[in-house]
Amino acid sequence: MPQETVIYRRDVLYAEVWSEPATTVAQRYAISSVALAKFCRRLHVPLPSRGYWAKQAVGKQEPMPPLPPLPCGATEQLVITRRRRTLDADRKQASKEKGRATMGTPIVVPHVLEQPHPLITRTLPLFEHPERRNGLLRASSDDGVDVAASPALLDRAVRIMNALLLALETRGLSVEVADGATRALVGDVWVRFRIVECLKQHVPEAKKPPRNLHGTDREWWQHWNRPRMQLVPTGKLSLEIKEADVGVRVSWVDGHSRIEENLNDFAAHLFVVAEAKKAARESDANWRKSFEAEAERSRHAQAKAERRQRKEAHVLGMLERWKQAKELREFVDEMKLASIRTGESLPRWVTWAERFAERIDPRRAKQTT
Question: Of the residues 51, 99, 273, 361, which has the maximum number of CB atoms within 10 A of its CB?
């Protein structure tokens, strides 16, 4: 599914939530009012109190608080990448019209396999000893086209795939089988597709236990022989575009009309899916660009905060050393006075303490350097 990048700027959100109700602003951003409130809290944007707009409606004015300064390390904006549910309507319509114009006349599936495409020619021998799963036959190797059907529908599925491959190639699209996937090159985008028979759940009838079993033995037999749910073919083919959900139609199933009648519509949607994948690629590139820019801003903000913290720690350390030197000198002076009053000799450590005060005093250290 295509992605889109939404940037929530702090100053813009502040102006919007104080000029319109939160529900209106949230609708503009295609988010809920709860998500809007969360983003505002992350950006430190104050929100109107409950009942603010009701009071405004009756003429009661409440003061609008100023936008507070950002805390240390906070950013001015949030870059949010989210999935876009559908392809832009204009691009979708333009790509579909381009696909219809490219495909031109209706694609016709012959009743007999004629002029098989080289990929079909390579695949047919792989169905001689096919892989069997849930009643469907598949090519025994990843070199074959992506077709899976019951024996009754296999010939029809191969003929449809052959007609589709020939039509796409005739109209200028390259087709190939790569890693077990059949795909077409639409512009510069590969789009995978397949033909597969639909399956349904089926629970067979329960077997009757032997008559000679009774009690616990009968219960155990019924438990181990209970009918298991199986997947069985439905007799309906499905033509599918094997890409992640891109918000457009990606499957056509036998119903009121058979898939042979919808090959041109399917081919036109190949162009739509290719455009959706291209949009997703552009969105990813924009997201990476925004993410890298946001990461760079965060790194700068973190580096700035770390420099400020180092400066603060340095200044506080110098202040602490100055206080210690000052108190130590006062203590030395008191010891000298006490020595004079008592007539006792000055202890040796007092002289050392005086020199120590000189060493730790940041003012003295600056003079000596």
Answer: 273
